[in-house]
Amino acid sequence: MFKIPCTYNVAPKKRGVQTGLIRTLELALVWLFDQVPGTEDKLAALLAQEGGSGQSLLLDKDSDAGNRLHKRWRRCRVHKDIDRLLSGKDGVSPRQDTSGDDSDADADARNKRNGDTPPDGTEPSPQPTATDPKSEATPTEPAPRHRHASTSRRRFKLPRNFPRLLSVYYSYTHSWIPILNPKESLDSTAASYPPDGFDIDPEDSSTSAAHAELWCALAVGAFQDATSSYSSGGPEPPDRPSLILAAARSLIPVETEMALGHVKALLVLSLVKLGQDNAGAASLLIGLAVRGGMALTDRQARDRHRDSFSGHSTSSTDDSYSNSLDRVLKTCLMLDTIVSLRLGQTPHMRTNDMKEKTTEETGPEEWAPWVPRAGFGTGNAEGAAQPVQSLSSFNQLYQFFRTLNQAVESGSAGPKIGAANLVQALDPRFSFCNSVVFGASTIPILPSAFLIQATFLSATLTLMADARVSLIWSLMEVLESSISYFGAAGVSPLLVTYMSIASTKTCVRALRDDDKTRWNSLMVDLMSVWQDRTSNREHSPLDAEQSDQTPTRVESATPQLARQAASVRRNSQYPFPMNPNSYHPNSSGFLQTASSASPSTARTMPFTPGSQLDTFPSGFMGHLPSAQASYLMGQGAHGVDYDAIMDELASIDCTDSMESDPQFMANLGFAPGSDLTDMLRGEYGGM
């Protein structure tokens, strides 16, 4: 009747769940399980993760981490392609309007308050190609990995020799402080890294904890391997330990609660600072670990209290988590005690904070054969295979540190804790610690065995008011034997702290001639392990893309270490060689070199133990331009060259008096050549 064309059009903005979306996602998920081995296991582990955090990530609508993941999904290319296929518009760009999704709107609002929302107009970039040099990402970067959803998301690329670094760590560090997950678990985490790197958000505690464990082990292993005599034979030098250390630090969350893996990483990273005799920086890391461990303990107690009312039974996963947490708390007490003794402070953790529960000495960590690594020691350690005895060694070390902690706690009240208590705490299996004659044949050729004996002798020195010189000789003999078998790189960094504490004793100050030289030489050898000795400045282990970042200034410590033996600092409290420029990093977390201060500045600024300490490590201080390494993807480093400014200030020689600088008086308005008397007379009218 009326020939009016119909103007009704199908609304392009569809609300709700599209038909077939759930089945499509299920099929896509199963296809991903088949294509990427280990993906299904990782997702299952997330669902059964410690304290129910994995379930909270996926089910809790108020979870910030979950909201960040959901926002990333809404922006990724796969989501848009699925949307396009289900809508039947193969040749049309997928719809951009998601205003009908209330949960996404809520997530955007929360993220905007937290500063996670990208600037207006920011849209996902198309997948870059090799012919697009101006693209923000590298040509090899997959498009789905956008970093817009979180300002803290970064890309991490494994060092080339990461299998070697993990093996070194588990042979020479995990054998006496078994707090990280088994090596197979870290190998699995490393296997998940694509060749071009892996995007990780440190603030997402549920996912970054496993990576923090991996990188802290790589950092310690890198320092140890750099000092070994092992040569990979490759055309390129190994990655710099300082950059690997910085990467591990940056994986510790700043504004969110830490998971157990982060606490473990803090404790392991503190070993590097102890090896550098930087007790102040180590105490900061250990202090954070103590607080994080106590928070996890409180959370576990609340969860158990809630489960007791709901009738939930304890699973094997809960038991495994509880055992891991107990080990971490014991390590907190051990390291807190030793660093407090080094600083002359009172430990924060006390024995009454701990459960009287011995770590079970079962499983591969106790009975698997210990494997020496090439380049460590003289090779004499490669005899008959011996069980590693990590757990029994850990229990014995904990008993020693527990006795030291009680000695500090006892004070004037209660029974006095002394060296006799150490003998009572000695397990019969480690009776060689108390032998009258220290013969090499009586000690198992294991790094943990030599560390236990050195700990026994050092604790005895600490608890004895008037120690004998023979104890120092015995300690030096144990250290020399340990270096002979495992190399200085295979020796625990705790020995540096032991020697620093022992240096305050009268018996060490009384050492003369050859004994003094012997003591100083041991200290230099042990500390040299934990300096950044590599010279590979062309490549970072985390270089996944080219950027305009300022090159990181990390100087080789080798020339400084060579000068230490010749320039021993004579100090009544620290008679061993002290070079604060080598041992105390600057605020960027990298080694401060001799070029950072002029000779006059070095002479006029005396070194006071505890006065030249680190600020918080770079991983805890946000994104400082001077602290950025080249693994910080998508973030420029166009900062002020603070090193150049400090060099300029240090080059200005200060005058001893105002009379010697006529220009200074002229700048104040007085005639050239005026002195202080003329200035006071002019100010106060003939005073």
From TrEMBL:
<feature type="domain" description="Xylanolytic transcriptional activator regulatory">
    <location>
        <begin position="166"/>
        <end position="355"/>
    </location>
</feature>
<feature type="region of interest" description="Disordered">
    <location>
        <begin position="87"/>
        <end position="155"/>
    </location>
</feature>
<dbReference type="InterPro" id="IPR052783">
    <property type="entry name" value="Metabolic/Drug-Res_Regulator"/>
</dbReference>
<feature type="region of interest" description="Disordered">
    <location>
        <begin position="299"/>
        <end position="322"/>
    </location>
</feature>
<feature type="compositionally biased region" description="Polar residues">
    <location>
        <begin position="569"/>
        <end position="592"/>
    </location>
</feature>
<dbReference type="InterPro" id="IPR007219">
    <property type="entry name" value="XnlR_reg_dom"/>
</dbReference>
<feature type="compositionally biased region" description="Low complexity">
    <location>
        <begin position="310"/>
        <end position="322"/>
    </location>
</feature>
<feature type="compositionally biased region" description="Basic residues">
    <location>
        <begin position="145"/>
        <end position="155"/>
    </location>
</feature>
<feature type="compositionally biased region" description="Basic and acidic residues">
    <location>
        <begin position="299"/>
        <end position="309"/>
    </location>
</feature>
<dbReference type="GO" id="GO:0006351">
    <property type="term" value="P:DNA-templated transcription"/>
</dbReference>
<dbReference type="GO" id="GO:0045944">
    <property type="term" value="P:positive regulation of transcription by RNA polymerase II"/>
</dbReference>
<feature type="compositionally biased region" description="Polar residues">
    <location>
        <begin position="547"/>
        <end position="561"/>
    </location>
</feature>
<dbReference type="Pfam" id="PF04082">
    <property type="entry name" value="Fungal_trans"/>
</dbReference>
<feature type="region of interest" description="Disordered">
    <location>
        <begin position="535"/>
        <end position="604"/>
    </location>
</feature>
<keyword id="KW-0539">Nucleus</keyword>
<dbReference type="GO" id="GO:0008270">
    <property type="term" value="F:zinc ion binding"/>
</dbReference>
<dbReference type="GO" id="GO:0003700">
    <property type="term" value="F:DNA-binding transcription factor activity"/>
</dbReference>
<dbReference type="GO" id="GO:0003677">
    <property type="term" value="F:DNA binding"/>
</dbReference>
<feature type="compositionally biased region" description="Low complexity">
    <location>
        <begin position="593"/>
        <end position="604"/>
    </location>
</feature>
<protein>
    <submittedName>
        <fullName>Quinic acid utilization activator</fullName>
    </submittedName>
</protein>
